[in-house]
Amino acid sequence: MDETTKKKLVETAIQAASRAYAPYSKFRVGAALIDARGAVFTGCNVENASYGLSVCAERTALFKAVSEGAAEIKGLAVVTLDAPGFCSPCGACRQVIHELARKAVVLLASRDGTWEETTPDGLLPGAFAL
Ligand code: THU
After folding, report:
1. Nearest residue by C-alpha to atom 3 in ligand 1
2. What is the pLDDT of residues 41-89, one digit of tens each?
């Protein structure tokens, strides 16, 4: 994935974060991914008054992509608007990223548009898989 595509993915994730439904945590997260055909899918965190039902931005984007027939996922950007640094994906999202975006470059972005790169294996070494 070239730098222009990475930058665009980060910007798209920042836009997605602005759509977060996070009235409880007030911690808005956005994710954007791109597949092998260049299709882009986005997600935000969607919380619920029954807190445990909340879904993270990464899983929203990944489940949208799979359910809409995405090709192999090549890149995934994650960002929060409500902290200065990058948003480190939670354990549940790491497991799902590892399974559904195994070959992706993962961009842990900050709201200023900068990012650090990692991989699903980097996020979850020794991941459980069947
Ligand atoms: N959250 C995400 O969307 N992604 C992460 O990787 C970490 C946490 C959300 C869940 C919850 O809505 C809020 O951030 C605070 O935990």
Report:
1. 56
2. 999 999 999 999 999 999 999 999 999 999 999 999 999 999 999 999 9
Q: What is the C-alpha separation between 39 and 109, in angstroms, rounded?
A: 20
* Distance from Cα 56 to the centre of ligand 1, integer Å: 5
Residue 11 among the catalytic residues: no
Catalytic: which of 47, 58, 68, 117? 58
Q: Which residue out of 45, 62, 87, 123 has the highest number of ligand 1 atoms within 8 Å of its CB and is therefore the one to mutate?
A: 45
What is the pLDDT, as a whole number, of residue 18?
A: 98
Domain ranges of the chain: 3-120
**CA nearest ligand 1 atom 13, residue:** 27
Assess if CATH 3.40.140.10 describes domain 3-120: yes
User: What pLDDT is stored for residue 16 in this prediction?
Assistant: 98
pLDDT at position 118: 98
